[in-house]
Amino acid sequence: MTVANNTNHSVGQAGSRLLSRLVDMLQSHWKVLVVGIPFIWLLLFFLAPFIIVIKISLAESLIASPPYTPLYERAEDGVLTIRVIFENYSYLWEDDLYINSYINSLKIASVSTVLCLLIGYPMAYGITRSSPTTKNILLMLIILPFWTSFLLRVYAWMGLLADQGTINSLLIWLGVIDEPIRMLYSELAVYIGIVYSYLPFMILPLYANMEKLNMSLNEAAADLGAKPTIAFLTVTLPLTVPGIIAGSLLVFIPATGEFVIPDLLGGGNVLMIGRILSDEFNSNSDWPIASAVAIVLLIVLVLPMMLYQRIQARERQNS
Amino acid sequence: MKQRRSTFILSMLCFGLAFLYVPMILLIIYSFNYSKLVPVWGGFSTRWYTVLFESEEMWAALGLSLRIALVNATFAMILGTLAGIALVRFGRFRGRTLFSGLITAPLVMPEVITGLSLLLFFIALSHLFGWPQRGFTTITIAHITFSLAYVAVIIQSRLSGMGTDLEDAAQDLGARPLRVMFDITLPLLAPGMIAGWLLAFTLSLDDLIIASFVSGPGSNTLPMLIYSRVKVGLRPDINALATIMIVMVTIGVLLACWLMIRQKHLLDRDANTK
User: Fold this and answer.
1) Which of A17, A27, A60, A187 is 20 to 30 A away from residue A8, measured at CA?
2) Are residues A135 and A46 in the same domain?
3) Which residues contact A196 (CB under 8 A, 6 or more apart)?
């Protein structure tokens, strides 16, 4: 009885000692956990997958499972051979399909960015200059589409642009046209879709930038006799350049890799690299080529992406 | 001259808002159309809502999407909060540059690349360990990876906005760092964490590309199901679904705004009475 009691006691003691040591450890090392848990997650599920893509892009396509050659092989005598081939990359370079898709993606993304800027800039300016209540309502109206499904908003345009869609029916009813104009499954539809989907991404950084501006500078310019156009070009516009760059990058980067919009609104008629990548992988099962397409897309976008990160970092330092 | 410019600004605002909202309004109107051909008006009807509610496929997809979104939002909130705290409060530590790079990269990475790389990674893993099965697990892991970055951004901006005064005071009064974290920092961060949770939930519910890359046979999320139907053409039951989603989001956003305005009023009143 006493023996049992004793052991119970010592077990309890050991337990509480363990617990207090655990608490001590937590007290002194908790920072390691705070950094470590998300860090390990990202290394495992973001960096490692990426390295695998690079690896597969350097392999040869095979009809097997997995459908690519291994990067290194250990022969029977223990010699390690590493096989790296750059054929996938030179293939991308030689085939017009890929080059044209990259160029077309960049063209569509740039034009859409400029269109977003042309529509978004006056809107952001208008929001900045409204009364506080109106401002809140307008901002809410800009943010609301963010929270609704991207896919369904693209779908909405299918109904508008179809041959028997709303726009064509309206134009025929008004007597402007006799035959429906083909708008769906064209480059025009892709432009509309991208501008529509990404417009809020342009307006919000512009608004955040203009909101911090001192509008009295503009008035000072006017008081000193500058015409509104001159005051705008020499005072307001230069001051909003950071907002313009941030908004443009937020539209340009995702638009270049866009897949849903060219697929649903462009049909087979619009070449964009996101669609090629997905086709290469899903329909052709050519993993090495798909990986090489992804790596080249990333190289194309790395400069704008780094620029955006720089701007964000500076923004954080300033605030 | 000034008058003319503000007319220009005003008409641009109206044009822009119309551009954003007319398609959504038409989507709602056509969901009550009797005709099977979406753009041809055939009288008012709610039959497409019945079709929608009777579709078992739709309910299964919605269930899967909601389960993924819930798990994702919770994990992303925890991991994103940890990451945000580490980046703002810990100063310099080893690997900080890589860490902050890894946090911002998912925000700007094209979705096709993230999706492809995660899929290839999961396939390699299951070759080696027989895990994970493609479906719920893989989609959730993929969603957590990009959602946590968004949460970290929200937490970072909230943390750097609130200063260290209260935390310093608690520490001066003898609270150990871990206690300061739980009693001061985390409660102050709560609104940011809730916002992050909601954003992660919505991002997950909205994602099509990454989910279609990493999902396996038989596990269709709601966006994947919508996509497979819409790809063939216009479908009135999708209009009905869109209407329900738009109405729910609108109610949610209005509610959030109302709560924020009320809180601000209460704070103002408190400040006035003191």
Assistant:
1) A27
2) no
3) A153, A154, A157, B19, B20, B23
Look at residue A64 in the predicted model and tell me its pLDDT.
Answer: 62
The predicted pLDDT at position B2 comes to: 46
pLDDT tens readout for residues B126-170: 888 888 888 899 999 999 999 999 999 999 988 888 878 888 888
Q: Do A43 and B102 touch (CB under 8 A)?
A: yes
- The count of structural domains within chain B is 1
Which position has the higher pLDDT, A285 or A188? A188
Specify the CATH number for the domain of residue A298. Answer: 1.10.3720.10
Q: Which amino acid is at A220?
A: A
How far is A237 from A245, CA to CA, in rounded Å? 12
All residues of chain B having their beta carbon less than 8 Å from the beta carbon of residue A287 are 120
Nearest chain B alpha carbon to A142: B17
Q: In terms of residue numbers, what domain contains A38?
A: 2-57
Interface test with A, best of B6, B87, B102, B108 (most A CBs within 10 A): B108
Query: For B5, which of A200, A228, A319 is closest by C-beta distance?
Result: A228
Q: How close A174 comes to chain B (CA, Å)?
A: 16
Q: Which DSSP letter does residue B211 get?
A: H
Looking at the DSSP assignment, which residues form a beta bridge with residue A68? A61
Buried b (16+ CB within 10 A) or exposed e, B94-107: eeeeebbebbbbbb
Residue A73 lies in a domain: no
What is the pTM assigned to this prediction?
A: 0.86
| Residue B128 domain-assigned (yes or no) | yes
Residues in B touching A129 (Cβ below 8 Å) = 6, 9
Does B229 fall in a domain?
Answer: yes
